[in-house]
Amino acid sequence: MMFRIVPIKIVLLLCLCSVLHLGAENKQIVSEMQVASNDTIFKFSYIYNNQAQVVVETKTMKNGANWENISQTEWFRQFDLPARQLQRLWANNTWNDTYNIRYHNVDSKIVETHSVFSNTVESDIRMIEYYYENNLKTLQREYIKYNGNWEKTLETQFFYASNKLADSTIVAQYLNNNLKVSYKTIYSYNQNNSLKYIILQEKNDNEQAYKNSSKSVYSYKANTISSLRNYGWNAKTAIWENDTKLEYIFENNDSLSEEILWKWNSMYWDQVIRYNYQYNAESQLFKKFVSLPIYRDWRNTNSVNYLREPNSSNMTIESVYGFWGGKAGEKLNTHISFPFNNETIIRKAETIQLTYIPFVDSSIGTNNNPSLVKVYPNPSRGIFYISNFDAVNSSWTLTGLNGTVFRSSGFNLSSSIIDISDLPNGIYLLNVRSASAYGTHKIVKY
Q1: Domain for residue 354, yes or no?
Q2: CA atoms of 319 and 35, how far apart (whole Å)
Q3: Which structural domain, as residue segments, surrounds residue 276?
Q4: What is the pLDDT of residues 20-37, one digit of tens each?
Q5: How distant is the alpha carbon of residue 238 from its chain centre?
Q6: At 13, which helix (H) or strand (E)?
Q7: How many domains does the chain have?
Q8: Residue 327, Cβ neighbours under 10 Å: how many?
Q9: What is the CATH number of the domain that holds 327?
Q10: Which of 52, 202, 281, 320 is least buried, going by the fewest C-beta atoms within 10 A?
Q11: pTM, to two decimals
Q12: What is the CA radius of gyration of the chain?
């Protein structure tokens, strides 16, 4: 998991896009996503827990008529809190652990530890510490493992106003445990707590005071953002100078209809890019036009089409060329934003297909404590998942009704996934035992 500083205008653009997609489909969950990119088709399949949280993502690639395994990510939770994230690659007809992220509480902080595997040997490489007070994050420290020792690379302090809104943050970067540069972000708000402006300052390790770097100012109409103007600091003249601005136009139903990005060019504003949005009768986005100013006129370079199946949440999203000679209507490989359950994500692709299913809590609890260990989905086509399963202190065995043992946790000590896709359809007994719970579950493969 890598962190980087994202320009404010991009963050706001993504936030606005997420508003466009959130709707009444929050009881539908994505079971499968196919992504076509540069003549390659990838498929992502998902397993959810009883709270509609993704616990397994499996990535495959189409090779002729078959799907070949590539990678898999599994999220472990203990009592509905994140405990571990494990990544695997498929090689030699088996899943091989490659990257592990562990979470645990230590005194008043949460520690996130990253590790890699080499020939099944696990080695820590990165660590992040999170400190909280009154449910607000106050400090975050990041380390890398170097020559067997933890070396601090980043430290972020969070400060809040009396109303718990962010007042400022200070990010300090270190090299060889020595402070190199610091960044300070200052937030200001209107009386209704809407964001008024953000100022970014910085200083090197040998400087005493912070210097202005950039400023972003927000404007509103009827409590809806209408523009975001970005400035750069001119140290010679000690004034803020225009840099870029984003303008937003909303329809009467508060749906975003147009965005225009401008760039300051010495004496005037140059248009850079424009986005137009069109909606169907249900106020769902079905087309996004991307235009560039060519010969003093807006030219549609490409469009993103959101094609929904009738009476279904299933959707096909495609990016196609606009006016380009000889290519108009052809597929275009580009970054596409789209709804994924209750959030918006971005993938680079020509076509994206989303298959939704209604969310149903199909988990089955243990006999003696249903709140601890659960198995889902049940019934299933062959993939089952055990929640709150600690492979170090737990074990499971899968048998037939006649007592024949088909699987056990010894086949994969690090996983909560039970794959019986190769077994005949029918009823099986799953015996789970942990330090705090045990029980027998009747599971059905169909």
Answers
A1: yes
A2: 12
A3: 1-37+222-360
A4: 333 333 478 999 999 999
A5: 39
A6: helix 8-21
A7: 2
A8: 13
A9: 2.40.128.720
A10: 281
A11: 0.82
A12: 26
